[in-house]
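> forwarded from #structure-qc
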């Protein structure tokens, strides 16, 4: 574990709550001038990374620039989990010197430990630090204040009038940190995949995610990437016979149409045990989709079909294709390959399976779309026949062997 000390000055400080039991949890309430807020507080315990482009951050910045004295009344404050806190009064001078001891995991411990830092109020902190940067520039001799057209005041020139409430929680264990972040971050909805990331739910996917894909996949909000872990779960669900068996107890398939009609529920109901066998095949399902998209690019007149756009598409692997496709053109074909998965393993090499079935599956899907799709990809994808008919291709191949 690594320990850092964050020092700040508070105009007011009180122990707002302490449990009766020995070594109980403690809540401190601090009133801190925003110019005294430390600049390097960690955001790791927060369910999502702060995004300065959010409307809420822009609104906070406007208040800090135009009505800094009102900021403490308008804002919910910042919640920090700390390993320990020391508060020393100035006596007759007023105010308090505060030291927060914050622990963070070493590289070896990152997958097991969350660490201390801001668990709620990350966007407030982002707005404060950005305003501080502008304020500091104004204090330098080389910068001249720029009046705001709305108020005539200099941009952030009166930032010293702004204060923020900081709540510090002490004696909080790792499991509690995850729960606190989950429940405190519900005033502005946090994506479910971010909350599950905080709880360590995605570690198994991170383990098997190919290195080429990592620059393109986010595991919590605020990471500026083209995809997030939801996109991986949806593809894994397509080939998951445990939750979507190609042959159910009654002999009929359970089709994974929820991968694009109700994928929010798919993420919410995620359980590692349901996917443990199939996650090692993540690289293979991405390979199959690359083959599929490459085959689509070779189809003549593809862009004339409703839902298809002839524009560059960057796939999860970093490979670029010439057409952007609706997911009903992709997921039902991926799902057909699960017929050849048993106990989490392919019955044949995945490359051989593509060679034997890939083109046939694509042609069958396009034929069905032209005949039955009504030019509506969403309708086509919801149809049970779309998924079930494609299963006939691998089933016939099995029978022929």
């Amino acid at each position: 574990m690594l320990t850092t000390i964050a020092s700040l000055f508070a105009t007011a400080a009180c122990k707002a709550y302490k449990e009766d039991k020995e070594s109980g949890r403690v809540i401190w309430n601090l009133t801190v001038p925003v110019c005294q807020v430390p600049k390097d507080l960690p955001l790791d315990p927060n369910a999502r990374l702060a995004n300065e482009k959010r409307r809420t951050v822009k609104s906070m910045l406007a208040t800090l620039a135009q009505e800094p004295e009102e900021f403490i009344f308008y804002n919910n404050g910042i919640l920090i989990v700390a390993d320990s806190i020391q508060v020393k009064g100035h006596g007759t001078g007023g105010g308090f010197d505060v030291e927060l001891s914050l622990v963070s995991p070493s590289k070896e411990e990152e997958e097991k430990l969350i660490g201390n830092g801001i668990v709620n109020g990350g966007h407030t902190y982002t707005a404060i630090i950005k305003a501080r940067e502008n304020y500091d520039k104004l204090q330098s001799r080389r910068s001249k204040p720029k009046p705001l057209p709305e108020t005539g005041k200099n941009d952030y020139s009166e930032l010293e009038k702004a204060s923020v409430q900081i709540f510090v929680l002490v004696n909080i264990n790792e499991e509690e940190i995850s729960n606190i972040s989950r429940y405190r971050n519900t005033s502005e909805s946090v994506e479910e995949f971010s909350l599950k990331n905080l709880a360590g739910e995605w570690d198994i996917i991170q383990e098997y995610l190919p290195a080429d894909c990592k620059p393109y996949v986010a595991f919590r909000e605020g990471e500026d990437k083209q995809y997030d872990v939801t996109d991986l779960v949806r593809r894994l669900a397509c080939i998951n016979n445990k939750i979507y068996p190609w042959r159910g107890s009654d002999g009929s398939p359970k089709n994974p149409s929820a991968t694009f009609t109700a994928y929010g529920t798919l993420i919410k109901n995620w359980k590692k045990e349901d996917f443990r066998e199939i996650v090692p095949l993540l690289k293979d399902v991405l390979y199959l989709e690359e083959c599929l998209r490459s085959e689509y690019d070779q189809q003549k007149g593809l862009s004339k079909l409703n839902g298809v756009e002839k524009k560059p598409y960057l796939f999860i692997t970093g490979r670029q294709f010439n057409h952007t496709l609706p997911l009903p053109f992709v997921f039902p074909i991926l799902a057909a390959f699960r017929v050849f998965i048993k106990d989490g393993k392919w019955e044949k090499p995945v490359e051989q399976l593509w060679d034997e079935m890939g083109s046939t599956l694509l042609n069958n899907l396009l034929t069905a779309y032209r005949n039955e799709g009504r030019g509506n990809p969403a309708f086509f994808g919801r149809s049970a026949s779309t998924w079930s008919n494609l299963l006939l291709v691998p089933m016939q191949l099995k029978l022929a062997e």
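QC bot note: Residues 120 and 184 are 6 Å apart (CA to CA). DSSP finds 15 helices and 14 strands in the chain.
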